[in-house]
Amino acid sequence: MLAFKQERFHSRIVLPTGEVSDRVIEVRTHPITGRTCRITYSRGAEREPGAGALPAPPPFAADRGTCPFCRAQLGTQTPRLDPALAPEGRLVRGDSTLFPNLYPYGRYSAVSLFGDGHFVEIGTDRPEAYADSFLNCRDYLLRVLARDPGAVWMAITQNHLPSAGGSLLHPHLQVQADRLPANFQRCLREASARHHRRSGTRLFADYLRAEQQAGARCLGATGAWQWLAAFAPEGFFEIWGILPGVTSLSRTTEEHWRALAQGVLNTQKFYRSLGRNGYNLGLLLLEDGSDHQELRVVLTVRSNHAPWVRSDFTGFEVMLGDMATFAAPEQTAALARPFWQDRGVEGSGAGGR
Ligand SMILES: [Zn+2]
Q1: pTM, entire model
Q2: Which of 53, 82, 247, 324 is 20 to 30 A from 18 (CA-CA)?
Q3: What's the structural domain count of the chain?
Q4: pLDDT attached to residue 308
Q5: In angstroms, what is the span from residue 81 Cα to ligand 1's centroid?
Q6: Residues around ligand 1, an ion, CB closer than 5 A
Q7: 135 lies in some domain
């Protein structure tokens, strides 16, 4: 039912040495969205400034005095939730605090901190901090839904470092809910519903089954979450986590969020091993009672946050709409897999800078 379509071809050029070279290009069609992406293998040899090693912290990394998310300022410089939603103003769980976004993107738009760490290098935070922050997001979204049952389009996202869109260095998640969908939310609902109409089964569980049969892109599991390198990536080193069979926040357990946090940290450690310090994360949720769309998180590396690094979005992505990455997803999986092995990475020397 799901088609994993890929087509390879060559572009013939004559190198400066006079040698004829057939450059390999691959176009893959996303099994869920139908969007195409391409893998421009030869560009892997291109020098990429700033990606040779993990960049040093930015010069303002120690500047805690002006950060509204640092604990000394948090109580006076961040807004409070609508009392109708949360009389206590901010949601606290462990070291995580959740409060509204001062500059909301939609009807319900909040920020969830991991703790008081102002600059936290990728892959070094505690899984418990991520779990508490995710659980804060879940609690907030369930409160929103109880108050406004029409706000069914939900998302938890992360922009780690300004190169990934983060406006503040202090690590945080964004969480939102609205009565209107974003493009990807609308597309995903249509794809999940269409798949269920045709097959009577759920989209991501079937996608996962197909990938488990293929094997080449599977990374491993954290709890009930299954992790993969995306077949048709729309970002560099794109990793997916799928929670098969779970379609609603109300059916998630604390253990689900703790296992998600572990997978996110595994992915961060993998990205760190590639010398990358910024990434985006997205978990889209649909709470309209339709029961087709399972939880799936996506992570992609972004250009490093360092001087003179070029953007990873070129005219090809922005104007033609096809992401052009350099590495086969099967290679991404081979590089990432050790980070899902229980005692793998810290002891093996595969992590770190
Ligand atoms: Zn801070």
Answers
A1: 0.94
A2: 324
A3: 1
A4: 83
A5: 20
A6: 67, 69-70, 118, 170
A7: yes
